[in-house]
Amino acid sequence: MNDFVLIFVVMVAGFTLGQLLFAWRPETSGRLRNLAVALALRITVPLSILLAIWNLKQLHWALVWLPLIGGAIMLAGFQLGLVVGRQLRMSGAELAVYGPGGGFVNLGALGSLTLFVYLGEPGLALLPLYKLFEELIYFGLLFPYARRHGQFPVDTPSRVWRDPVLLAVVGCWLCGMLLNLGGISRPAWMGSITSLLVPLSSFLLMISVGLVFRFRALLPELGRALPLALLRVILLPALGLGLVWLLGLQTFGDGLLAASVLILASMPAAVLTIVPASLYGLNQGLANACWLLSNLVFLCWLPWVPSLLSWIRP
């Protein structure tokens, strides 16, 4: 199957199934969403990362820069949302949706799938390092920022280090590193397991999106959501590549690190964009529009990936 078609089918099929499940049994949608998220983020995603890191051929000191690059790009997305929102004369409550809408990134579902499709397991193995500061930025900055402007202040998770998702990912990452550094060869048949786990993870997470996404009040906000969606996919990858070149990492792994940063910096808004608006009584229509347009722009950008990668990795 064509690379673009595979990603498109997984996204649309998962989202559509989530919408259908909600229409069929709305009273159970919360439990179904929790189940899909738990299966993906606690089992299939961590296992695919373990297998990918176990098989990674190059471990190098240069990889320590990857978490800093990833964190810088997420923070830049947040700042981009604030700057564009102010130019659009948004209120403080609207900025509390728009700013985090630029910072929340779909690294789990689409990041892992896109890396695997275009760069294989070596690219997928770099994902945990890139997103190392993700939880800290999300729950230490983006959620509190949205909460300050909300109508219904509630507590957000503290003690990020106790998050079972984070523990599962870090635990599997460490296991993969130990197996890799221990010189234990990964059985060849496990490669086919990774080929199943990655699309399955993305499919499950897109089901969870479909179970919570609502189209009500979305249309009036599309015009304001579009500038952020377009600028994200242009400026953030440019920033990522700029940092890679500035640090002299463009040749690492025959361009693997640069290609991974390009792809991950281009990822669309995560479904978490919708969550603060729901929790804190913010503009739900704007949040939904930011998520939807960001993902549609991403799909329009996706066919250009092979050309960009051939430039980075000639």
From TrEMBL:
<comment type="similarity">
    <text>Belongs to the auxin efflux carrier (TC 2.A.69) family.</text>
</comment>
<dbReference type="Pfam" id="PF03547">
    <property type="entry name" value="Mem_trans"/>
</dbReference>
<feature type="transmembrane region" description="Helical">
    <location>
        <begin position="62"/>
        <end position="83"/>
    </location>
</feature>
<feature type="transmembrane region" description="Helical">
    <location>
        <begin position="225"/>
        <end position="247"/>
    </location>
</feature>
<dbReference type="GO" id="GO:0055085">
    <property type="term" value="P:transmembrane transport"/>
</dbReference>
<keyword id="KW-1133">Transmembrane helix</keyword>
<feature type="transmembrane region" description="Helical">
    <location>
        <begin position="165"/>
        <end position="183"/>
    </location>
</feature>
<keyword id="KW-0472">Membrane</keyword>
<keyword id="KW-0813">Transport</keyword>
<feature type="transmembrane region" description="Helical">
    <location>
        <begin position="259"/>
        <end position="282"/>
    </location>
</feature>
<feature type="transmembrane region" description="Helical">
    <location>
        <begin position="6"/>
        <end position="24"/>
    </location>
</feature>
<keyword id="KW-1003">Cell membrane</keyword>
<feature type="transmembrane region" description="Helical">
    <location>
        <begin position="289"/>
        <end position="312"/>
    </location>
</feature>
<dbReference type="InterPro" id="IPR038770">
    <property type="entry name" value="Na+/solute_symporter_sf"/>
</dbReference>
<feature type="transmembrane region" description="Helical">
    <location>
        <begin position="95"/>
        <end position="119"/>
    </location>
</feature>
<keyword id="KW-0812">Transmembrane</keyword>
<protein>
    <recommendedName>
        <fullName>AEC family transporter</fullName>
    </recommendedName>
</protein>
<dbReference type="InterPro" id="IPR004776">
    <property type="entry name" value="Mem_transp_PIN-like"/>
</dbReference>
<feature type="transmembrane region" description="Helical">
    <location>
        <begin position="36"/>
        <end position="56"/>
    </location>
</feature>
<dbReference type="GO" id="GO:0005886">
    <property type="term" value="C:plasma membrane"/>
</dbReference>
<feature type="transmembrane region" description="Helical">
    <location>
        <begin position="189"/>
        <end position="213"/>
    </location>
</feature>
